[in-house]
Every structure is written in C-alpha cells, then in structure tokens.
Amino acid sequence: MRVVMLSKALVHAAYHQKCVELAALPGIELTVLVPSAWREPRVGEQRLELRHSEQYQIQVLPIRLNGQHHLHYYPTIGRVLRALRPDIAHIDEEAFNAATAHAMYHGRAVGARCCFFNWANIARWYPPPFSWFERAVFRMATHGIAGNHEAAALIRSHGYDGPLTIIPQFGVDPVRFAPRQRQPREHFTIGYVGRLVAEKGVADLIAALALLPAHCHLLIVGDGVERAALQQAAQAAGVAARVAFQASVPSATMPEVYHRCDVLVVPSRTTTGWKEQFGRVIIEAMSCGVPVIGSSSGEIPRVIDDAGLIVAEGAPAELAAALRRLATTPALASDLAQRGRARVLAQYTQRAIAQATAEVYAAMRDAPIPPVPGTPPG
Predict the structure, then answer these.
(1) Dihedral of CA 23/369/117/43: which sign?
(2) I want to staple 287 with a disulfide (CB 3.0 to 4.6 A). Which of 139, 177, 217, 277 is the partner?
(3) Domain map of the chain by residue range?
(4) Are 372 and 108 in contact (CB under 8 A)?
(5) Are 312 and 208 in contact (CB under 8 A)?
(6) Cβ within 8 Å of residue 209, ≥6 positions away
C-alpha cells in the first residue's frame, strides 16, 4: 500500500517517529511531503529539521502563501502525486483549508483514496471560499480524522457523514521522552513550553507565581508576539528575577527542557475564536515523568484525565494553590509523574498513534472511491 502524507507539521524532527513507526508496519510504503519551512503566525519561521530518512522517503515541496493557515497550498502537488501514484493520500490539514481541497483533488485524480485531519473545535460556519473547500473535501474524502472529540462533533455538524476516527495528530517517542532521576534543586521550577500568545494564558501563570514563595521559579520556553508584554508583566508583579525566558528549541532537544522542570503548566484560555485542541506538551512532559497542571480549556482535561491536576482557566489564585500543593507534597508529585508516564505508554506513544492511523488506511483501502469534482480548487 503506497501512502503519501502531506504535512507542514512534519517540519519538526520529533514528529517523524510516527512516520518511522508507520513505515515499519507490514505493507506500508510511505512518502512524506513537507515544506522547507513553515511561518507560524505571531511566532516566526519553523525550518525543516529533517530532510532524509532511511525508513521512508521525504520530498520537500514549494509552498505558496506560507504562514496563511487556511490559504496556503503546494503548487507542485499534482505533478508529485502523478509521479508517486499513491493508494492513500493522507492530507494532514483541516477540511476547510485550500491546501486540503487542492491536494485532495489531485489525489483523487490519480485514483488515491484520501483523508483529511481536523483540529478545529470552535463551532462556527466558514465564509466562502473556505465553506466551498470544506464541502468539496467532504465529498472527495474516503475518511476523516479528528484530533479531539469536539472536532469530531463539529465535522459531523458541518455535514460530513463518511467514516470518521478520533486520533491525535502525533504521539510521543517514550524512549526519547523518558523519565530521568531527579537531583536535589535549589528552586522549585515551574515550566511553560509553547507559543507566547495571549490565548495560551502565560500571563495567568506569571500572576500565579507572584502568589508563591521565593523558591518557586518559572521557566518560559517559546516565541511569540507576547514576549515583551509578559516580561513587563513579570516586572510589574515583582517576580522578574524569578522568571527565565528562553527561545524555542529544536523538537529533538525538548526532553532536556522538561527535565529542568518540577512541573509543567498549560494555562490556556478559551477565546471566541480558539480553545486548546490537544496540548502536545502535556503528553511530552508526562512521558518524561514530569507532573502536569492544565486549565479547563478545550481538550486539556481529556488528555490529562486523572494523571495531573486541572484548574479553571483564567484563575491565577487557583493555579497558585495547585502549584503550592505540588511543591509541598512530594508524594503527590511522584504519584502524578508515574500516572502520567503510564497514561502515555497506554495511549499516546508514536507507535500507538501509527497503529491507529494504519487501521484507518486499511479501512480506506477497502472502501469505495468517491467521485472527482470537475474543477480543481485553488
């Protein structure tokens, strides 16, 4: 079974372990199509970290409208798919994106069965041309994949009635993201890893730090437009000396970041246009044996379940209380670390995600092929 996966997320090397696991499964011949870089809005350019693999093929494609989530597309995708002639075209993009409709049209034109991947979990209707893209993708798709439960419900509410499976986009490599024996530390280090944008709730984390004793320090790792505002917030709260900012690091070195932390916090805040879709850093930290505290935004409570602590979003005092509880109760921290690691091994390894994805491919291979629309979008 020849499988092509088109994914801008695969600019990150750590995510490729899912591809390694897929390619190792019997009967799968995998080719990954990826841009040389992705310009994440309000964050910056994320350059491709891996260009060659012994287990599967990687092809770097030119990308148009780079950085525009819903309008970007790959101008050479038709020629590439005609050369590869895949049985399965896995388009790792939302159904309402131009890249998805464009690639799926060309995938169907060469006889491939196609699937899409949706994270979107905010109930809203899309104006043209995005509603046109979505309708076209729903007609052409053999299967849909949703990254969370709310996204699956939203896809159904928008009219998709084909096969649909809930699978996170990527899992964790439990060998690379593994626990490490902790050495005594002078400070209790609270970690945040992610984009520095308002909806990620980092300002709430700084406000919570101001309610904690002096031995509690905060490590913020990431880039984004809110960095200067967050530095000013730390100064105004009188905790600037206890807050360290670090730029984003390559995905392969993320375990080193988690091992510097006594707890990871994901303080996301729901807005009118966004809520947390999964929180990949949650499963990475849990795999490393680091306790996690998450807000109640979106999918976070489902991902953490009973392997961490959940606090109300936008509630710094409640967050501070949870952090104080962890800092003063080593037995609780140890218990949550063990539960988190066990939860990842049971549900969120790259191997488990790859196996679930391969089962989708097998179902697609045996399914009828939808018709090809008359005109390519984009």
Answers:
(1) positive
(2) 177
(3) 2-171+349-365, 188-348
(4) yes
(5) no
(6) 190, 216, 218, 234, 237, 239, 242, 243, 320
* Helix pair angle (130-140, 98-109), 10° resolution: 30
Q: Which residues contact residue 19 at a Cβ distance below 8 angstroms, ignoring those fewer than 6 apart? A: 5, 10, 30, 32, 53, 55, 56, 354
Both tokens of 335, joined, read: 């218990």
- Amino acid letter, 115: C
Cβ-based neighbours of 331, under 8 Å, separated by 6 or more: none
pTM reported for the whole predicted model: 0.86
- Is 167 strand, coil or helix? coil
Query: What are the CA-CA distances from residue 111 to residues 86, 91, 163, 354, 371 (Å)?
Result: 8, 15, 19, 24, 10
Closest CA to 359 of 90, 141, 95, 154: 90
Q: Which amino acid is at 309?
A: L
Q: What is the length of the chain?
A: 378
Q: What is the pLDDT of residues 16-55, one digit of tens each?
A: 999 999 999 999 999 999 999 999 998 889 999 999 999 9
- Residue pLDDT, tens place only, 298-319: 999 999 999 999 999 999 999 9
Collect all residues with Cβ–Cβ distance below 8 Å to 182 and sequence separation of at least 6: none
Residue 220: pLDDT above 70? yes
**How far apart, in whole angstroms, are the C-alpha atoms of residue 227 and residue 206?**
12
The gap between the terminal CA atoms of the chain, to the nearest Å, is: 28
Alpha helices in the chain (DSSP H): 17-24, 77-84, 98-109, 130-140, 149-157, 202-209, 227-236, 254-258, 280-287, 300-304, 316-328, 330-343, 350-365
Reading the block at residue 216, the tokens are 């509690």
| Tokens describing residue 91 | 């388009």
| 3.90.550.10, 3.40.50.300, 3.40.50.2000, 3.65.10.10: CATH of 2-171+349-365 | 3.40.50.2000
The rounded distance, in Å, linking the Cα atoms of 230 and 217 is: 15
Task: Find out if CATH 3.90.870.10 is the number for domain 188-348.
Answer: no
